[in-house]
Amino acid sequence: MVADSLPAYGWSRKAHFKLVLVNQTDDNKSVVKETHQKFNGGYRSWGSLFLNLSDFHDSKQGYLVNNTCIIEAHINVQASSHRESSKQEDVNEASDESSTIGSFDSNETETSDLTLRDLLDLESLRDEEAVYVPLLEEACVWHPSLIRSQSKRTQRFKSWAFSSLGQVLHILKTSKVKDMNEEVSNNLRGLWEELVMASGFNLDWLKPYVESALSMEKHLERVLKVNELKGSIVDLETKMKKLRGELAEAEVEFEETKKVMNELSKGYIEIDLNADLSYNVF
């Protein structure tokens, strides 16, 4: 579209788009993000994280080479196959706009423009909750149903649902395998079960990551046990080496002592050390 051909306020388009951050050294490492989204004249601009900035700046990673990065954009706008149908939709949209100024009758239209900041008062969040916001915003961008599912909920319920989801995302994003001990795993498991049962979110996209993280607890226990046994083996090997050295020294001392004894035993007549000396004055 050019500026003169832009439709009036209230226009909307559904589009499927894909963005690709090309890895210039290994195509298999290229980062792909794709989604469906409805755009309109009042839609807010947004973005999404592709990868850590440090990885992007590292030329060895292959995303930024010679100060150049390559981004591919693929966009498919869903348009009506019949011109008359399209015109009728425009008429209906214009009619809806004039009759419902400041409000919307369609749930889809009402929620398509909503963002996390429309649902929650982010400024009132505690510091420990504020760290979840970037993760939640990115999740809502790629999974708009998260917003739609909470649009009619009470403020308290929305705060609980997104706070719990933020905690889960934060654990998955910041934890390492070594961190998945019993306490962390139980916390993640409890949050996840509550979200699945009561939040109203469709979390099928997140389930594999949670299950993988929870499986790390048993794996971590096994790894820690193996590492403990490895330490014991090292200690035992050190002890065995020391004992072998002491045994070798004892064997040498034994042979030397035996040799001296044999030398002294030549011409030796064994006597009873408790016998009398046979002294008699008469």
UniProtKB/TrEMBL annotation:
Keyword list (alphabetical) reads: Coiled coil
The record's Gene3D superfamilies line, in alphabetical order, gives:
Apoptosis, Tumor Necrosis Factor Receptor Associated Protein 2, Chain A (2.60.210.10)
Per the record, where are the segments of Polar residues compositional bias? 97-106
The UniProt entry, under InterPro entries, shows: MATH/TRAF_dom, MCC, TRAF-like
Q: Its domain of life?
A: Eukaryota
Entry-linked PROSITE patterns? MATH (PS50144)
Against PANTHER family, the record matches this protein to: MATH (MEPRIN AND TRAF-C-LIKE) DOMAIN PROTEIN (PTHR46236:SF36), TRAF-LIKE SUPERFAMILY PROTEIN (PTHR46236)
What name does the UniProt record give this protein?
MATH domain-containing protein
Q: What species was this sequence derived from?
A: Pisum sativum (Garden pea)
